[in-house]
Amino acid sequence: MDPDPKKSKVLTSNLPNSNGSSHPHSPFPDEVLEKVLSLIDSHKDRNSVSLVCKDWYNAERWTRSNLFIGNCYSVSPEIVARRFTKIKSVTLKGKPRFSDFNMLPRDWGANVHSWMVTFAKAYPFLEELRLKRMRVSDQSMELLAKSFPHFRALSLSSCDGFTDDGLKAITTHCGNLTELDIQDSVTADIGGGWLSCFPENFSSLEILNFSSLSSEVSFEALERLVSRCRSLRVLKVNDIITLDQLQRLLVHAPLLTELGTGSFLQELTPRQYEDIESAFGNCKNLRVLSGLWDATSFYIPVLYGACSGLTFLNMSDTVLQSGELAKLLAHCPNLRRLWVTDSVGDKGLEAVGSSCPLLEELRVFPADPYDLDHRHGVTELGFLAVSRGCRKLRYVLYFCRRMTNAAVVTIVQNCPDFTHFRLCIMNPRQPDYLTNEPMDEAFGAVAKTCTKLQRLSVSGLLTDTTFEYIGKYAKNLETLSVAFAGSSDRGMQCVLEGCPKLRKLEIRDCPFGNAALLSGLKKYEMMRSLWMSACNLTMKGCRLLAREMPRLNVEVIKDEGSDEIQADKVYVYRSVAGPRQDAPPIVLTL
Amino acid sequence: MEFVNLKATELRLGLPGRDETEEQSSSCAKNNKRSSSEMESSSEHQESGAPPPKAQVVGWPPVRSYRKNVLQQQKKPESDGSGMFVKVSMDGAPYLRKIDLKCYKNYFDLLKALENMFKCTIGVYSEREGYNGSEYAPTYEDKDGDWMLVGDVPWDMFITSCKRLRIMKGSEAKGLGCL
């Protein structure tokens, strides 16, 4: 093994049988230690390793190749580049999650450019970049495209700021690209020229996802691309692509494991219908299916031939009725994950309960989130039905308009293995609809029964009792989302004092004030971040926090028309990089 | 299936957290069962135990913006052709919208609805000048894939040939207006 010039060390030993180690008491030569450490992938393990001693810290940092930064403002690009020298893959996350719901100003920050500039200098061998909730300009994309000759994989989740020009730079210059995955990214109508910029001899693509872009791509270019990329296994197109166009793509790529269809609504001739049916029938390797915009009962059956191996079915962009869902599920015996809209109703969820014994994850989205009429959607009955039939359930996201304590208690008795329990009763502060009591007992049961619970979102009418339960029982809880809940500071205090593994706490519209905020003084440095909006915080309380805890960044966004005393939106996070320099004027750093 | 008042699903381009009073827009409201006054009720927080507030609260329910009101998008071919949905984009806006052209009787209604939806001024069309002088100009893509200025052809011809709309910045649309 050639010694790394960066770690020129004097190899001495006081022991008679020198083993080449620089530290006389270390049993391993550095090369062995590094070889062993290079096998460790988990960044949590690596962080632990780096704390053992100086030698291990160094050995770890020289062998780390995957960088994970959960909050881009917790550290600076310079610090990262100094510590790690051999990075090949970066995951970087930016804005707080509530930005997904329009709660942050558009120019809040999380711009990737300063990172890109540093990476271009420090990590010329960079191969992968995965960004979440970051702003990515065309300029950054151009820098990316030109700086890393070995670049293979770009994944943008919930990002914005780029246009056709930025993507064109990527597709034109990244000759070794295997992955271009753009999920949930909000961006203006950007045009589809980028797809046509893949060179004619380019054939390395394995993953292509542009389902959330509104680009009008050239179908001819797409078809040529798909036919020459023989290793393509993931293809998710947007709703510009029609059914018969999809059929032609499937003919070129029958080995796909993941497919996102385009629009599923088109007047097809009987011959075309047969063709698409047979194309799906030939997709023997399909595990994941999504898209299906505007799918109706007439066209859904064309899918049946591709469903036997499906493990993840995402119908959340389709308004499906219960009968249609039931018929479809009958063809999907291996389903582990299912996303639907609440148009399927409780009856549809009964079908889920009876057809999907292997189900681990269920997400039910509201087809019409602002419908104040309680006639549509799902209720506690649907959730109960699923819990009776799907005992392996561990992840649920459930939007509903009514719920009872008794139902939730039964649900978690049926399914005690929940790791993620996100229940959204859509009317704020709604009580148990049968007893009119708060929903405290429901979430108490979740906290008590689901010992593996990592993530919890609560809703409905809740008193401090809920948070006492959470603090007392939810010992593995890492992420908690709270809205329109609690009675006093005590609620938040219980959580801060009780949940040892808490990393992310996001709160909106709760009666928690400065006392609650300050009770977590010591805790926030052990967490990634805290978000509190529309609570009872004041500037004074926030300033006190900032003063007491210099290693926390305390940022306040004031609403228009708010007075000088209130702190409307507060974002607190630990950082070794100090206050950020790129905050827009509306964000006050205390 | 009934459609709810589109006003309820309107995205705001103002700062988040603002408590704006809702104005009545001329956008499509096929559903008559809900009066506009209900939508104008204040969003003040109420005491626990009281009936929950009925007006829309920013960022609630916590559904991603791109995950639009799926009901609105659904086209129903089996009905009498109800629904002529086209996408509408505006330069600089992060999200597209969809509107049903059949909800409008004429260009005036359509432009007023667009102005409300995107909080912009489009101004008045003239055959000679297009929308010159306005901050924004409405354009559309027709069946042949060409980008046309909204207003040149009779309304009925427009709605059958319009595939999608784009509200361009006035400076860029000058070329179209001067033809």
From TrEMBL, chain A:
Any matching Pfam family: F-box_5
Record-annotated F-box domain positions: 28-69
Composition bias type Low complexity, residue spans: 13-25
Annotated region (Disordered), positions in chain: 1-27
Keyword list, A-Z: Auxin signaling pathway
GO terms for cellular component: SCF ubiquitin ligase complex
Alphabetized SUPFAM superfamilies for the sequence: F-box domain, RNI-like
InterPro entries: COI1_F-box (IPR041567), F-box-like_dom_sf (IPR036047), F-box_dom (IPR001810), Leu-rich_rpt (IPR001611), Leu-rich_rpt_Cys-con_subtyp (IPR006553), LRR_dom_sf (IPR032675), Transp_inhibit (IPR041101)
Coiled coil (UniProt feature): none
Domain of life: Eukaryota
Alphabetical GO biological process terms: auxin-activated signaling pathway; SCF-dependent proteasomal ubiquitin-dependent protein catabolic process
Name of protein: Protein TRANSPORT INHIBITOR RESPONSE 1
From TrEMBL, chain B:
Residue ranges occupied by any PB1 domain in the UniProt entry: 83-170
Keyword annotations of the record: Auxin signaling pathway, Nucleus, Repressor, Transcription, Transcription regulation
One of the Pfam families matching this protein, by short name: AUX_IAA
Region (Disordered): 1-59
Compartments reported by the entry: Nucleus
Gene3D superfamilies per UniProt: Phosphatidylinositol 3-kinase Catalytic Subunit, Chain A, domain 1
Gene Ontology biological process terms, A to Z: auxin-activated signaling pathway; regulation of DNA-templated transcription
Any single GO CC term annotated in Swiss-Prot or TrEMBL for this entry: nucleus
Main localization, broad class: nucleus
Function: Aux/IAA proteins are short-lived transcriptional factors that function as repressors of early auxin response genes at low auxin concentrations.
Membership in a protein family: Belongs to the Aux/IAA family.
Assembly with partners or alone: Homodimers and heterodimers.
Protein name: Auxin-responsive protein
Organism, scientific name: Sesamum alatum
Lineage: Eukaryota, Viridiplantae, Streptophyta, Embryophyta, Tracheophyta
